[in-house]
Amino acid sequence: MNTPSLSLQDRRLSLILLFAATLFTSATLMFSLQPMFGKLILPKLGGTPAVWNTCMVFYQSILFLGYMYAHFLSTRQDTRRQLQIHAAVLFISLLILPVALPDNLSPPTETNPTLWLLGTLFLAIGLPFFVVSATAPLLQKWFAQVGHHTSHDPYYLYAASNAGSLLALLSYPFVIEPNIGLASQQIAWSGGYAALCLMIAGCGWSLWKNKPRTDASAQEDILLSPELDNKTRLHWLVLAFVPSSLLLGLTNFISTDIASVPLLWIIPLTLYLLSFIIVFSKWNLKTHPIMTALQPVILLPFIAYSFINPAILPYWLDLVLHSTAFFLAIMVCHGELARLRPHTRHLTDFYLIMSFAGMLGGMFNTFVAPFVFNAVYEYPIMIIAALLLRPGLDISTGYRWTLQAVFPAIVIACGLIIYLTVDDLPQYLDTIGTGLILLAGLTYAFKNQPLSLALLAGTLIFFTQGLHGLVSNTIFQDRTFFGVLSVRENVLLDEQNRPEKYHELFHGTTKHGAQRLAAHLETVPLTYYSRPGPMGQLFKSYDEQNGEWVVGAVGLGAGALACYAKDNQQWTFYEIDPLVVEIAENPDYFTYLKRCARNLTHNIGDARLSLAEEPDHKFDLLIMDAFSSDAVPTHLLTREALDLYFEKLKPNGILAFHITNRHLALKKVLADHAKQMQLAALIQEFKTDGSIPLVTATDWVVMAKDEKILNPLIASRLGSWEKMPLYFGMRPWTDDFTNIISIWK
Fold this sequence. Notes:
By secondary structure, the chain is of the alpha/beta class. Helices cover 54% and strands 11% of the residues.
């Protein structure tokens, strides 16, 4: 890239600060709007991780439109027309402030809500998000024309933009969310957006005042800059597509297979933004070779332990391993992108292709993968693709390409022979696992052959995924907007030491129910709902009173709770995922509903929206058992939610809350509500000695308006019910305010 003549150089630091501060502010607003609106919309759709992924697709799509607008505006219009058009767009966007959700939102209950969610986001924040999306490429293009001595390479300003993104993303869960309610956040964001519009106007004035140079030097730069060919564009596209897909794939994988904790969703996005900051800085020349060398080194423990034998790792170590492998993969891809960045003449083309690839990656994960795969397979596929994109891939010579594929082909053939000829493969699990780990180590020898490395990694992951499915005895698995559901068949030894089959229902890696298949045991509720446990104790304590109870249960699972139903009781199950209902009603998987259900109905949709439509004072007992994998959706835990539950309960009604959780102390939230609302509340953290098969340790809270209502439970002396502990310094959870960090175990 040529540098403009010294006579035309502007060395003012204030010009850099103005453009950098505007880009920083724009990115900060963009990445604080994302979690804020994700939190606003999450309650409408049950708190599922797919909400965040769908929001990401929306953000990526609007980002692409913003980049396209910046590209055409800066390449098809002269300076005066650019400033006039963008000023009009800014003015129109200010008219819709403050940002807010449309009134009377009602998501579909029978169909996939993805399109509904995208439409809602478009109406609520489409135009302001479009403006902040267009800011980065447009202002960098303007800066390239103002005649500053660094105008020939404005890409370093991209680091300021990503620094703002990173600051906003990390500030939200640790600073903004714990201290500012959603309503105040919306007002503050709207004020910040108005300030951004003024800063953009200042940058526009600088462009107008400095007059883009049109001298011979500028024309020479344009003539010397090479034309873009389709091969270069395609290379940029795949280098940006794979990290984008990996981002959502890892997010889904973390939520499904490691821990369904919303706080963890920001980790992949933080690493993603950090990679852009590093590669578009002066450090990339030094860091890129290091990252390229480290990627296959980390590949060994990553595949060997996280895919081949994940059970031996604690969740936090598994998370670290996946995050490290993800970071190295995107650093290699983004490092190549930064290395191949073009002359400023093609700056907006470059960013347009990057944003288009990001949008395609998000669409692949959100619209294609869930309909093609019955689990999160897009994640390992993109790990393999990232290895293919390492520097050094050469497919121009057919002979060399074939040679690199020979050894992986031999490994695949040997694996298929073993799979097809060896009976009872699980019996040789340790031997096979050792062989796969040794093979993972062998992949390092192919670090300079991207095709061989990728094919070997793909072979390893393919066989380990198949082996896991075989060992887990999965008889059904499918994927919906709300997650991956699977039914597994296993064997236990009964009281006479005879083998007996049973079925388990899993959402992600969290068990949501189980049933023994012996005829005399089919109606015995198990896991969190066992008769020795809190639920069994509750129904037994009120056995003489509950003959005609009206019962509501939020969350169906395998349907075990239905086996507490009596002939004259009326039960309604509220379930957000239609597939859960299909599984529970299918006698090939579970027969609880078939054997136990009497006066029972289903209501599909979000619990709060469904309960709001029920008559007041309808229920004698309301059971809250809603989980997304291991997490209770936070909107079911707020003060407004508790008010709704007690509106629907009779004056002497009981609220039972399932709060078993590996990561969050949910009892703190309910204890604070009980204190603030002056409710009677008891808790039991039930433990099991393992003497009864499939009875699980579980935590339950029961609440009522008067402690006399709970006296039968205490008088029964069943279990160890205790009064809720007091927690000081808790800020009550409301629809406007929740704080995950305050209850982290």
